[in-house]
Design brief:
With 194 residues, the protein is an alpha+beta fold. 24% of the residues lie in helices and 39% in strands. The model has no long low-confidence stretch (mean pLDDT 95).
């Protein structure tokens, strides 16, 4: 049923482009967790997509609050919006955390020094500080030595969303179009009212 609706293939190509190009509308997205029965939202960067199974991934600091959220409730949602095409994607599913394993070793080895320094700052994300100070180490990205490399990697993790549904919406003055894709053993698609 999914192959009859071209929208899915198109959006997967757009997500793939978003993963590769910083200027793409899908490069950053809103990621939502639950904390104390309330939604918590933040913008993250799309780093990986897969089709077997259907997943998307991003990187974060293991000390961040979102990790604590996921340990209590791993059901999440993600929101993408392409202003140029007037397309919104709402993904929902469950999240897993990769930390200090073969996957994170491989990913860590591939990221740039400019990205690595983001995991070497002295403060955990969301920690209250008395005055503003950049949460970065006192070295440049090109001065990373083995000690800093080890410190950064110890704080690095990858979150993967195992997609259960994608709600696709095309905003149009002549009538919005909306499709619900469900990811079970087979991927199904059905038109729904907008």
């Amino acid at each position: 049923m999914i192959r009859k609706i071209k929208n899915f293939d198109q959006e997967w190509l757009e997500l793939n482009a978003g993963m590769k190009k910083g200027s793409h509308e899908y490069h950053s997205f809103i990621f939502s967790t639950i904390r104390s029965n309330k939604p918590e939202l933040r913008t993250v960067i799309l780093r990986d997509i897969n089709t077997s199974p259907y997943t998307i991934s991003f990187h974060t600091d293991i000390r961040s609050q979102k990790i604590k959220d996921l340990k209590l409730n791993n059901f999440v949602s993600a929101l993408f919006y392409d202003r140029k095409r007037s397309v919104q994607l709402r993904l929902s599913g469950s999240a897993t955390i990769d930390y200090n394993n073969k996957i994170t070793e491989t990913v860590w080895a591939s990221i740039t020094p400019e990205s690595k320094v983001c995991y070497m700052g002295p403060y955990p994300p969301s920690k209250k500080i008395e005055i503003f100070k950049p949460n970065l180490p006192e070295i440049t990205p090109y001065e990373i030595d083995s000690e800093y490399e080890e410190l950064g990697y110890a704080r690095f993790c990858r979150i993967t969303i195992n997609i259960e549904t994608i709600d696709w919406l095309l905003l149009h003055h002549g009538g919005h179009k909306r499709i619900l894709f469900q990811f079970k053993k087979e991927v199904s698609a059905e038109w729904i009212a907008s």
